[in-house]
């Protein structure tokens, strides 16, 4: 270009004159030139004529554009606090405004394809950003969040990115070179005395210009400074430019050609490597305005300049220059010719005017103003259920079809949506004419809107990476859980069990009871439940899988017959699709199974007094068991009553068959529970006296009450749901007390609470039942204002006074007090337009509200900040919790960072969702006190919402708040406040010999003393290890106990192989690609452990092949090394064992404190269902890994570092574990020698050179060997 003479082709004013063109940039894909002004306007012009293409205001007037970055998808513009993305036609694509972006001064792409942009920030501004805020930020535009920051001093005034290097100019004159991936400073150069005005870089050359101070004034430094990065930032030369350089830009085609401009309009093209002698000078005619911006097109044929007067100048050495060598077509708008302008004078005829088209239709002006016209269909109504899913970008909103389901037939979703989409307003003639009817209609519409809202904390979160997710990053579970409680993954079959497992985990007696259980039965749900609870204990905020428990559940025939197992091949699952029925059946089956696995016979009906539990009962029976006495009276022949007693773990609520008549009060929860506990019904059954089927009158009443009362909500129809949610269309209309509505009491604020209020579900209840079944009384909210009748309370108190006065033990069924400690509910985000029955709803998922018990509150665990998931009733309750002395409330405050959430950033923020936004702000204790009485409306709360792996602290008010058919309760868990002490029954596995004294039952250990102690002792491990020593195996030699007894710190190599038990569920997208809806279900098939130290170092001590209990879909031989028959005990030559025995041995090694070395252990332990402390894991895939780069395979590392060629045709877990141990030894050698970082960079360099193929390294080694051989001879 230095040899060509440049001249100005065209100079045009922008659409909005006198707005300074402070930024110019050529489009990288089309023949367009972009300009941005100091008033927030962005304009595109067609090249080379600079005809106006599009123009819009990206920011309000007074907010200048500080950065303009065209890309293939559109154009990104930045102001001092906002990022905007538009299409070339001006349609908004993105708007991001964050307090962390306040003071933005410049920007550039870090990686435009990945949507990452680097922002330079000014020094901290008062009131906008906190003290010590970083001067640089890396923003992920897809996630709309700041992913990295860089600390610094006075701020950034200019920056430029080129590949992996980022050049930044500061206000104090320093030039900082940073790593574009991590923003870490690599070199710092003192370039100018004042601020750096502009910087650019290409390859290893960096140029910059800036300001200097002379005689107390600030001037543009007349030198352009050139630095070479290969020589530690040494200055190559200084290019003199007397007018004072303000903007610099390298030529895209020539590596050393530099464009320099000055505010006066002077332009210089110079060769930075020619010593300053090769240059050309030009002058842009700005007519007295300052020249502010410049850019060079990618083809190098066009130069663009912008001045302070709003003019854009296009220069070139050709008459028809190109912007890009291969530009795409530019979409142009359709141009319509304007009709000719006709002017009439006084004497002209009206025939000269354009005539209306011929036809029978009359113009609107010809109609009678009082006539009624048909104007087509009424306007559409946007269904309120769609508004919750509305995603809005500026003024455009869109909603994903809520009826779209995985694997559904084509057109099914559109047909289901048609009813909702085609709803229209009623005509005036169809609307209520009276004022009273109009008010009623508005009230009904308001109730419908309220009932259709569901907070975002309840919504289903799918484990799916974003489309623009960095290739080597994984799903971020921590974004959805900032507490120390562990979540459960939901991307596997039967994951509906997660809610029930979380509830059982937080029942202290259940946890203590099952944690000490261990046996060798292959499919023992008690053991698997203990393993799950152990994982949840150790995870500390991480996410776990319940795959082993679900595997055991799948092998139980009773569970399959009850429809508890999901899957296309399960008959029971096809018959039962309602998840509420399935979770209720699972709860009943699981409790009965735990009781049966205890190896005890059914307990007697009459329990001992509460202070002396019966020694023959299981822990499950003591916690959940309730005795019901049943009497049957023959209605045809009078004879003695037949009575019998049954044991149950559930109480199913029985609702009235008909709703109350108009004007009648709706029954309270206590009344429905009374009806459910003491039932009387007429049935036709077998009469043992008459020896025939007779009409019988059957009565049931409780004889003993459990420690945990499990209530099955049993909601099947909309009529039954109406008793729970008064705002549903079929529910009550909340009558007022003045109109005769039955008042239930007063709330904390003193307001009357009437039937049908949201507090219908009580937090506390009291139950009193007579032994003879004459009466069963249930009261609700004994400690609160919502009590039942005074007679019921007096009856309970009288029974207690009588027991105290007699001095004897209380009856087996005294008045018991319960409080709500858990609630499992079905969540439906979308509803059908017309659903007469609850089971006609769309697919659902389950959530669990759990009250955290003190045993979890007192444990000292590291905690994190709370997530900002949107739920109502939040900030007030957290402020109240700050003043509460409840241990659970104090623990929950600690779990969310030690202090309550600040107002407006916790559960009450409607805009804070799991998909966007960061963690909620945390207020200081002082700020909570300053809030004064704002929190008096909240209740002290220990509640947490478990939505699979999305865990959110909540409040007691939110627990009892329902959202119509969106939130339907399934199971209620009421824990007895005055629960009797529990005893651990003696084991029945080995009956006592005659004459041996019976050991009295020992009480359970105190709940608060529960620890992570393992029930897998040395004797059990020795038994399992000796089983493998009964035969000599070629692949491994078991531990030689006790000389090789596992100990803390013992180094072991480990690797596991898996097989596919079920294929992945996929669907085809519109573009023909396949989308994975649910990954393939994998199962552990082989696990190998290799000694890492000692005399037998490198030898395998464990090589277990897991017996296949279900058909294997794919052995994955290429990756696992397994073939058909390897997992069959009848034909396999390997050591075949059960999954449980292999798990017990690995669990013992983990609990002993052994250290495990392997490659990709995170996935292996996740699939095995083991949580291993991080200090016991040495993962070579993480050791040899650079951040934000691909992870290197074991085969490549072994070939490059160890000169081993492994995994040629298939994988071998022993070989892989042994190779990982050798890599770890090599890692320690490199670190000790101080060569690790250089070696790691060298590995990545070779990997990129040979495409990460082992063959390239082998070929190079062969070539080097041949060269050395030839040089010898």
UniProtKB/TrEMBL annotation:
PROSITE patterns: USP_3 (PS50235). SMART domains: EXOIII. GO terms for molecular function: metal ion binding; nucleic acid binding; poly(A)-specific ribonuclease activity. Keywords: Cytoplasm, Exonuclease, Hydrolase, Metal-binding, mRNA processing, Nuclease, Nucleus. CDD domains: PAN2_exo. It comes from the Eukaryota. Residues 727-751, 913-936 are annotated as: Disordered. Signal peptide: none annotated. The keyword Endoplasmic reticulum does not apply. It holds the Pfam family PAN2_N. GO terms for cellular component: P-body; PAN complex. It catalyses: Exonucleolytic cleavage of poly(A) to 5'-AMP. PANTHER family: DEADENYLATION COMPLEX CATALYTIC SUBUNIT PAN2, PAN2-PAN3 DEADENYLATION COMPLEX CATALYTIC SUBUNIT PAN2. This is USP domain-containing protein. It comes from Klebsormidium nitens (Green alga). The lineage of its organism: Eukaryota, Viridiplantae, Streptophyta, Klebsormidiophyceae, Klebsormidiales.
